[in-house]
Design goal:
InterPro entries: TOPRIM_DnaG/twinkle. There is one protein chain. By secondary structure, this protein is α/β, with parallel strands linked by helices. The chain folds into two domains: 101 residues; 207 residues, no CATH class. The protein has twelve helices and ten strands. Strands 2-1-3-5 form a four-stranded parallel sheet, with helices on both faces. Helix 1 packs across helix 4, helix 7 crosses helix 12 and helix 8 packs parallel to helix 9. The chain starts with 7 loop residues before the first helix and ends with a helix.
């Protein structure tokens, strides 16, 4: 829900902004005709909502109970019946889901003509009730959320393949909820290319939630630092891959010989998330990072893991085993699970500030 923009933050802000109005209207009953049972439950829900709203800025939707489920039902019925009383569409959908218990499976099908879509004609009708600008914003938001998946952009085609595999194997329930850009069709890669792509998308004013993910190396850290000065819109975010504990004392080779150092922020790439089974040499040592150049702006050396092709080949074989159901005991997916969760966190964070 958060990743698609149906965030708890926006949900709470709607209740804080309009809750008192909803209490007043529910107190009058749900129906214009004489339906004692429906009107009685609406008035009970009004009393319950009024009590919940007393927490003020600390408002949280109450734990599931028969009362909270009834409140969710009555609010949705009220919003559907009273067109001008709609909160944002994400709040309507999130509230509707509150009718179901925490262990009850819920399947949601969004039709091409969704219940809360507004046509241009309906926007014109709203001008009698609302200023034009908010009406058009409502129209755009109603259509945008179901037509635009969150987008994840990465530095290269193998990054794309690895992150897709992370979701496919470790977080399959999210596979249909996001798009991971494929750079195999000639799009510009690397940290510089990704930064330019994010800036271009900002100029195009696309409505999607977008997150650019850079290698956690010197080039990636520099690109993120420069993006901080570009003033991108709220729907576009960026980050480097998460720091990993095992990378704090990682084998490296350079002009002065071998050494174990922290490669987070200097040489951590997608290969370091493929699993220890892919990174481990036959002698039990990890494939080392080789220092390749000095980043003057950051004052640190940039590095790259050796034998990238071999590491990627091992991963391809492991992925093939996973897809065929022939996993081996040594197959390690823990770091890719960490990366998938990190992607979800970044998407939710960006969606939540829109």
């Amino acid at each position: 829900m958060d990743m698609l923009g149906f965030t708890e933050q926006s949900f709470i802000s709607d209740f804080l902004a309009y809750g008192t109005e909803w209490v007043r209207d529910l107190s009058r009953g749900l129906t214009e005709w004489d339906d004692p049972e429906e009107n009685y439950t609406a008035k009970e829900s009004a009393r319950y909502l009024k009590k919940v709203l007393k927490t003020g800025k600390g408002f949280q939707w109450p734990a599931w109970s028969s009362e909270s489920a009834r409140l969710a039902r009555d609010l949705v019925l009220y919003w559907v019946d009273e067109y001008e009383a709609y909160p944002r569409e994400s709040t309507v959908i999130r509230t509707a889901l509150m009718m179901f218990g925490p262990s009850e499976p819920v399947y949601v099908s969004v039709l091409q003509q969704a219940l809360f879509d507004l046509t241009p004609g309906e926007v014109e009708w709203q001008e009698d009730h609302f200023p034009l600008a908010p009406s058009l914003d409502r129209y755009r938001s109603a259509l945008a959320w179901k037509n635009t998946k969150p987008i994840v952009l990465v530095e290269g085609s193998f990054d794309c393949k690895a992150i897709r595999a992370a979701f496919e194997i470790q977080r399959p329930e999210y596979m249909d909820c996001l798009s991971i850009a494929d750079f195999s069709q000639g799009a510009e890669g690397g940290a510089g290319g990704l930064r330019r792509t994010l800036r271009t998308l900002a100029q195009l004013e696309i409505p999607n939630t977008v997150v650019g993910l850079f290698d956690n190396d010197a080039a990636g850290v520099e690109a993120v630092d420069l993006l901080g000065k570009d003033k991108l819109p709220n729907n576009i975010g960026y980050a480097v891959y998460p720091a990993m504990e095992f990378a704090r004392a990682y084998p490296t080779v350079g002009p002065t010989g071998p050494a174990r150092v922290d490669i987070n922020g200097r040489a951590l790439s997608i290969e370091h998330f493929l699993g220890m089974d892919c990174l481990m040499q036959d002698d039990g040592e990890l494939f080392p990072v080789e220092w390749t150049g000095h980043n003057r702006r950051l004052g640190v050396y940039q590095g790259s893991v050796v034998e990238k092709a071999g590491i990627q080949s091992r991963f391809e074989k492991k992925l093939k085993r996973a897809r065929s159901g022939a996993l081996e005991p040594a197959d390690d997916w823990t770091s890719l699970a960490v990366l998938a969760d990190f992607v979800i966190q970044q998407l939710c964070a960006v969606a939540g500030r829109r």
